């Protein structure tokens, strides 16, 4: 079908490829401006603590120290990245006032003439912290008496009054009653770093009453609009320039470096560079959430799944960032590419005293796929059928209604599995080789 | 000790876009006087090749060679609004906006051509090489480059286009979860082959072979790039990576690449893929998208292959050598899940 087009469908040479592989592409950290200051932050050494005091006097005596930024400098200090699309409440502190909620949380920013001076001054800031009990385990965080991370009294993100994102479709208990087998599984996944070659960073430059911010964000307007809210600046006083990103994978959708760097430029009138070092990228920037996924499936003897109950927990750390959205996406995909007539999902965004987690490649779906696809093999084994057959028997087809009530369209699971079988030389039984994703006939729909 | 081989499969769907907050992107296009076209966007290129893909969609729609397109992106003083590059949305959403803008610019060119050739627009066809001709009369033609020059210097008219693509916001029903979160779905099925060393617990991935269905491909080489990178990342998620090796404890967290395990080139398996193209109903030229999903199916395929190889079911990621060895011990003591 490619032949019907002139350009679409052709493997043309990428416009930026030669510059990338010959090291000529300019990334954010390659830029420098006259008079540029370096910003580094003082981070909490404790997982959860009250801030009793911050003593800057020794830091101020470091040669090259220019000034510090504290919470008092931030015009709108509490924000939520997804506030732009109506997600509430505002919860994350640009610089916390009296409490830190994770190890590595920024407390004070230091501006200095050189990066070395900034690091030296950071090391001389004296923090007076009073340690609080911390919670790291999601089940503990949900149990009564757990240390509370949020400011609203429990450790879950609230979805329109519910502590979890729900899906209710059909009658899951009736499905279990009808099933020949019940299979339960618990799947756990670990926090994962995006590991971009280029660490997160930006340079904010004051220019004629405006601020130009060179950034490696994945979303220039998202970053601009959040920065405008935090700094109380009209958006037209900000210009964000980016577009070339040395690896994103979701890790550069948060808006963390731009507000502080721009605030530094506002307060000093000088360009300010804030670029994470590798340790900050590994330990302070958001990771993929750890997830616990509990699945209970009701299955007929032929491998057909008739009911699925899912409880999903995602560890968002101390601030939810993009995770509430990922959980909704998880809930919408709890059946994967399969048709299941009775489905019940409770998916929680759980706060702990951990580095905040956020968007990462496959957002809410990748780890769900891991759980679902391992579960499929267990179903096949329990029913004594092979792993291909169980997937074909449950495959969704065009016209099937998904648990979130969307009618399946553009479906090609069956054709894709047939192609994979051909690729590896796996002969499919005739009834599987003959299947298509075409809508079910009235008789098939009865199933 | 032994080296045991096994094969595992996994099949996945993947949604394009995430529109629970509304999900728009815009594009602007204008012709230069030499007949090239500047496409102005605000979308970031993450290394996946967004600039290349957008240039191809613009060139296709405008009927000019690929080299006649200049992409300028991600300067908010010039680029129109864009939500961002995430959710496997860019080729679909931004591509739709570019196509819409290119259609509007193309209409302006066709209008000029129809006036000069004294035929109706419906009788004109693009040759895909920068020319416009009257259908059935190839000698009656105009070059888009000449029309663009005359538009500016002779007629005082613009050749420009605006495009936007938006999937409206879908609110989630808090009781039932009813929602419309995506635009289309792409599919993958992966077959992974592994070898488990029962003495060390080490898992070598031998091959990751997949079929993908991603709608129309804009640039098949870039699609293969995504598939190879994604297979590598999925293998890494399955067997290597964590920032919290003692989760839920935060101890022993890595601080650099020396302490953060990832497979290197030496660990890379055979990665092979076939790509099916079934056009989507709403993507530009039938695009679905291929971005994020390529890391997904390799993970469970590898975990299922480990079970097939040695009978150890590990339901926690990453599957470390320790987990394999503990599983083998449990099997030997008759306590295995198998």
Brief digest:
The complex is a heterodimer of chains A (447) and B (338). Chain A has 447 residues and is of the alpha+beta class.
Low-confidence stretches of chain A: none
Unreliably modeled segments of chain B: none
- The CATH architecture assignment of the largest domain in chain B turns out to be 2-Layer Sandwich
Shape of chain B: elongated
CATH class type of the largest domain in chain A: Alpha Beta
Rg of chain B, alpha carbons = 26 Å
Radius of gyration of chain A: 26 Å
The proportion of residues forming helix of chain A, as a percent range, comes to 25-40%
Structural class of chain B: alpha+beta
- How much of the sequence lies in strands of chain B comes to 25-35%
Largest sheet of chain A: 7 strands, mixed
CATH class of the largest domain in chain B: Alpha Beta
Mean pLDDT, all residues of chain B = 96
Structurally, the number of domains of chain B stands at 2
Q: Which architecture of the largest domain in chain A per CATH? A: Alpha-Beta Complex
Say what the CATH topology of the largest domain in chain A is. Aldehyde Oxidoreductase, domain 3
How many individual helices of chain B?
6
Structural class of chain A: alpha+beta
Shape of chain A: globular
